[in-house]
Specification:
Helix content: over 70%
Strand content: under 5%
Shape: globular
Mean pLDDT: 83
Low-confidence stretches: none
Distance between the termini: 45 Å
Strand order of the largest sheet: 1-2
Order of helices and strands: HHHHHHHHHHHHHHHEEHHHHHHHHH
Length: 499
């Protein structure tokens, strides 16, 4: 929708389209192949049509649309309030809350900056353009695996901007310098793209991961642990980070063999951070405790076997959500310096509660689509459009659709829309639904082409140093490469990670 339209006009148009979509879907002769769907499924289809329109247009805040959709399900009789709003109290909700508080403590005490400058100061990085680009990608990928992609981009954007200023100042006085000014575009795009990709490494790296995990747990009764996810997510992240660096260096070469000024700038910034503060040590300790509790069940299962009593006790009594809350509570106990704790409630309350509400609303709609039979009917009605090829074709289709959808709406909304469809389609054609669901989950974070695709893209585009044509060209290459990487990775899921 044109951005120049007044907000009231945009809202009126979007609401009108949403109502039209809801009414139109209500009259469609939806069927599951053998019999017509229940009335509740028809009503849910109407609600979903309106929600999708509002999610894509984003004229209402995404969490508000999710809450409105859940409320509409109760009002229209799709389900009772207790059933509709139950996902808002799922254990994964508290994994969101706990991990968000840990991420806020890391940000507040600038622990993320300390990690970033520590990597950039490594001797192997030096002032080599390729190594600097790779180091930036690694830093963004690692940090965005534990804090939000947007926060990572904002932090690294400031760091890279300073590095670019130092580079340009050092090369400005050299008449024979062949520094390519487009190298700056490449570095900023690496910040945005690598920050989005790094979220794939861990379950808490980005909201779509937890959304996909919740659908998989509810519909397939498969519990993917933190450790198991990382076994798949980390290699996939590394492969895609390599692609990001390769694309950036190909499209935006430095033109010189050495970038003068980087070493001095990084050293000065690192010295400005000073020694480790009490808050940084305590935040690192709380996060280490949480990581240990997340990884311990998987490690013990490898060493002692899944049936060992210790593994059973740790998995059942300290699940990921509880581990995150233990780490979050520790933030209010451990010292933060100057007589304060690591995190105050005022600081903790600034976490992204909108994502929590969006997750609850999206999960409510997703669960209802299965309980009413709508997902099954939708899956059966479009199986005829899927070409022969078994699970491989379905996985590739799920990844591609999720990647395309994420270009036009948020990654979280994309996961809420595509993952249930992938599950339904796989069930309808008799394929393993786990790889299809995971493919849609991972690919929901692959929106790279447009400034509106992700906040990460919007941040670097706002610098004025990233032309839209360059973002589209590099983003399109990464979308295709990312969908291919996800498809290949998912082919091994049923055989290696989750037998």
């Amino acid at each position: 929708m044109p951005a120049h339209l007044p907000n009231a006009t945009r809202l009126a148009i979007s609401l009108g389209i949403a109502v039209a979509a809801a009414v139109g879907v209500a009259w469609l002769p939806l069927s599951s192949g053998e019999a017509a769907l229940p009335l509740e499924a028809h009503r849910l289809a109407s609600v979903l049509a309106a929600v999708v329109v509002l999610w894509v247009s984003e004229t209402l805040p995404l969490p508000v649309t999710a809450l409105a959709g859940a409320s509409a399900c109760v009002i229209t009789g799709v389900g009772p309030a207790r059933e509709v709003f139950r996902p808002f109290a799922e254990p994964l909700i508290f994994l969101f809350i706990g991990s968000f508080m840990l991420a806020e403590a890391i940000r507040v005490h600038r622990l993320d900056r300390r990690v970033a400058y520590a990597v950039l100061a490594q001797p192997w990085v030096g002032e080599h353009p390729k190594r600097i680009m790779a180091a930036i990608a690694i830093v963004c990928g690692v940090i965005s695996g534990v804090i939000s992609n947007t926060a990572t981009t904002a932090m690294m954007f400031a760091i890279v901007t300073g590095i670019l200023a130092a580079i340009e100042q050092a090369h400005d006085g050299a008449r024979d310098s062949k520094l390519n000014p487009r190298f700056a575009t490449g570095m900023l795009l690496v910040v945005a793209f690598a920050s989005s990709i790094g979220g794939l490494a861990t379950p808490i790296g980005t909201p779509p991961n937890l959304i996909g995990l919740a659908f998989i747990e509810k519909q397939l009764e498969i519990d993917i642990t933190f450790f198991s996810w990382c076994l798949l997510g980390v290699p996939l992240t590394l492969a895609m980070l390599l692609v990001v660096v390769a694309v950036a260096l190909t499209l935006f070469p430095a033109g010189v063999s050495r970038l003068h000024g980087v070493t001095d700038y990084v050293r000065s910034q690192r010295e400005a951070l000073g020694g480790w503060t009490t808050g940084q040590k305590s935040a690192a300790a709380a996060f280490a405790i949480t990581i240990a509790l997340w990884v311990a069940p998987g490690v013990l299962a490898l060493v002692l076997g899944k049936e060992h009593p210790w593994c059973q006790i740790l998995s059942s009594r300290v699940p990921e959500g509880v581990a995150a809350l233990i780490g979050a509570v520790a933030l209010f106990i451990l010292p933060g310096g100057n007589g304060n704790r690591v995190l105050s409630w005022e600081q903790a309350s600034k976490i992204d509660w909108g994502v929590v509400l969006l997750y609850g609303g999206g999960m409510a709609l997703g669960e209802l689509s299965f309980s009413t039979g709508l997902a099954d009917g939708l899956g059966r009605s479009i199986t005829g459009f899927i070409p022969e090829g078994g699970g491989i074709t379905l996985i590739a289709a799920a990844a591609l659709v999720a990647a395309i959808t994420s270009e036009f709406t948020s990654n979280t909304a994309s996961a809420n829309m595509v993952v249930p469809v992938g599950l339904a389609l796989a069930t309808a054609v008799g394929a393993d639904p786990l790889p299809a669901a995971l493919a849609a989950t991972f690919a929901a974070s692959l929106g790279f082409m447009m400034p509106v695709s992700t906040p990460c893209n919007a941040i670097v585009y706002g610098s004025g140093r990233v032309p839209l044509a360059d973002m589209v060209r590099a983003g399109a290459m990464l979308d295709v490469a990312g969908a291919a990487c996800v498809t290949v990775g998912m082919l091994a899921v049923g055989r290696i990670w989750f037998p």
